[in-house]
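Inputs:
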Amino acid sequence: MREDILLSGPVAFLAEEMGIAPSERLLAYQAWWETEGWPIALAIDQMRTPHLRQFSAQGERIDEISYPPSYAYLLSAGYSAGIIAEVAERHDLRLSYALGFITSYYDPGLYCPYTVTLSTWAPLYKYFMGQRREAFLGILTRREAPFGQGATWMTEIGGGSDLGAHVHTMARKDSGEAWRLEGEKYFASNVGAELSVVAARPEGSAPGLKGIALFAVPKERTGGGRNYFVRRLKDKIGTRSVPTGEVELRQSEAYLVGEAHHGIYYILEVLNFSRVANAVGVVAHGLHAIAQAYRFAQQRRVFGQFLVEQPLFRAEIERHYQRLRWAGALAWLSEQWLETVWLEKPPYSQRYALFRLLTHLAKFWTAQVALEAAHWGVEVWGGLGILGEFPAERFVRELMVTNIWEGTRHRHLLDGWEVLQRYNLMDVLPTLWDVRGVDPSLLEDLSVALQKPLEEIALQIEPLLGRLAQAIGQITAEQRSYSVLA
Ligand SMILES: Cc1cc2nc3c(=O)[nH]c(=O)nc-3n(C[C@H](O)[C@H](O)[C@H](O)COP(=O)(O)OP(=O)(O)OC[C@H]3O[C@@H](n4cnc5c(N)ncnc54)[C@H](O)[C@@H]3O)c2cc1C
């Protein structure tokens, strides 16, 4: 482990371990976070759930979320740095995700508004050809205030994993290009967004996943007035710097994105962006957790020595650092693959299937590695780790949320397994990286298990896909071969 990298912050890790050049912009953004952003982010977390102001003084329904003014300042930093605009103008996903890595090092909750704005922009850019196209895209890509934000609302009260069974929001064709949506979304992050993409069922469509279409829903109706309503805000253990609420769609004006029967593909594309962001972001936050633990250990004395000098401590932090490094390599590999497939449209290539496999592996494994690292960090702080006035416990709270949203561990294991099976990826996997470093039994064990019914091998999926995730991350990191699969 390079202690200088660990203690220098996210840009040094990106540069030295992930091969991403430390540009002036990244360094300035990190410096801003270090001096101004982080204290604001910590204060927002301490203030817990913001207030929902539902009515104006005149009694009109406004549904405004009352964060302190410093929140708008915090949020503006990423938009001004180009976290969305650089993708829209130059398709520079790498820069966007690098800015996201820095954001998430300090505050994974704040990375959510940027991520969902990007994943609202992408399907509109690719598939929305209606009259409002330029207006919609323009809302989401401003570099200066007032920023227009996006949001991605799929989940309803029945559950988020099985959207085919639980999306009940109905869509009815209205006049011109407009549709009307009626329903409720139970987990709606970045609630208050100017423009959201929402999953709904056009009247008469097929049951299950095939009948779900994607709609763009502006905050304001044509002619004025709220187009969706916020029933309440969620009181969350972490990610408090993004407001998550329950949304009521009441004859809400909406515009169909692309073709109705391709809705589920578009939803998966939305998730591609946010899952890669989650993978990249949790590694950053886990890294911050162990950096804070290291700083604490430098000044905490135990049994006549500083904790940082104790062999057991040194061995453990080394282990967490290396695992985060491998997790980082896997996350950035999936980012690189996203760069090469994000403009694909259905029917997709086998490359797209490989990207999906990488992203399922990256989402579940990075979340686990980062959460374990943060949990260990709390232990390093001993009893102080449990106290709200020290920084350690917040890392765990944040990373518990990022472990669940964007799909739980089970979902990624099962979906990753399905992609492996359906697209015969075992045939191409060994050609994708230098197999000298891979435990030869891994590919064999995978091939054998893939032949068996799920009931028989259910408990093997996690160890097998965990080994695969680690092997890809480790080899990529050791060979510094981030583009080996590209
Ligand atoms: C803070 C926060 C913000 C969120 N923001 C948004 C948002 O903006 N937009 C949005 O659409 N959603 C959002 N979500 C919802 C999120 O995507 C879901 O919570 C997540 O997908 C899991 O769905 P669920 O909570 O309904 O759990 P469920 O789908 O009900 O799952 C319950 C449990 O069953 C497990 N499970 C599911 N299928 C299987 C299986 N086949 N075998 C074994 N176990 C299985 C799951 O892994 C989980 O452990 C948010 C969630 C949180 C916590």
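The chain has three domains: 3-140, 150-261, 264-479. Flag for discussion at group meeting.
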